[in-house]
Amino acid sequence: MIYSVVKKNLINGRMMVCPRCKKDHDILQYIRLEMIEEYAHETTPVYKCCSCKWLFSPSGEMPQEIYEKFYRMLEEIANKS
Questions:
Q1: Cβ-count burial of 25 within 10 angstroms (0-12 exposed, 13-18 middle, 19+ buried)?
Q2: Is residue 45 part of a domain?
């Protein structure tokens, strides 16, 4: 038997899919865990799913355009707080 895997983007606009429960949520619904500023340039943010509480970190291996858009959006949100 041959199985084909359909790749789905983790981030699509303002929505992000939890890799565990596969539910789409607005990015603002995910809980972003605190980062240590001193090491922020060497680490990636960790998020907690609001449905299943799974911890995950979006990879820098995602398409560059999506990756940059995602982090710009997070910076804008952080600056508003």
A1: middle
A2: yes
Establish if 76 belongs to a structural domain.
Answer: yes
How distant, in Å, are the alpha carbons of 3, 4, 54, 71 from that of 67? 28, 25, 21, 6
CA–CA separation, 67 vs 60, rounded Å? 7
Phi, psi torsion values for 45, nearest 5 degrees: -65, 145
In this prediction the pTM is 0.63
Express each pLDDT in 13-66 by its tens digit. 889 999 999 999 998 899 989 988 888 778 888 999 999 999 998 876 555 666
Q: Is residue 25 part of a domain?
A: yes
Q: Which amino acid is at 8?
A: K
The number of domains in the chain is: 1
- State CA 74 to chain mean position distance: 10
